[in-house]
Design a protein that fits this description.
The protein is of the alpha+beta class and 126 residues long. The chain has one domain: Rossmann fold (3-Layer(aba) Sandwich). Helices cover 43% and strands 30% of the residues. The chain has five helices and four strands. Strands 1-2-4-3 form a four-stranded mixed β-sheet. Strand 1, helix 1 and strand 2 form a beta-alpha-beta unit. The longest helix has 22 residues. The chain is elongated. It starts with a strand and ends with a strand.
Length: 126
């Protein structure tokens, strides 16, 4: 079965792009979002292109992601405070970092440009 669109934000295994390529119809659109250390962005783009995609649009959305993390920090802190099971509380610092709350290392990396967020739109090459 082919799809007209696929959206993902998973790069742990570059072979996922082969799967996406196989899933898409010939006129299908691939929307991809990720956040990476700045130095890895070119490698991701090359990997996507080497899997048979033409990138039509690429947008840096770092500022949007950073502001969203900043704005949403109080809500995220409240969620951890209210719902984090006691068993996981020793890991709360790491969980807050993953959630990119204000004053964590991940948040700081966005603020200094070490971490970038981007989205791209690609199509299959025929």
């Amino acid at each position: 079965m082919t799809r007209d669109s696929v959206e993902t934000g998973i790069y742990k295994n570059p072979h996922i792009f082969d799967d996406v390529h196989n899933l898409l119809s010939d006129k299908g659109i691939f929307i991809y979002y990720d956040n990476v250390n700045f130095g890895k962005l070119d490698r991701i783009v090359k990997t996507i292109e080497s899997r048979g995609f033409k990138i039509d649009l690429m947008r840096d959305i770092t500022e949007n992601v950073f502001k969203a993390c900043e704005h949403d920090t109080p809500r995220r802190l409240e969620i951890v405070k209210k719902y984090l099971p006691k068993l996981l509380r020793p890991f709360s610092k790491e969980i807050l970092r993953y959630m990119c709350v204000k004053d964590t290392s991940r948040y700081h990396n966005y603020s200094i440009g070490k971490k970038r967020a981007f989205m791209l739109k690609a199509r299959k090459l025929s």
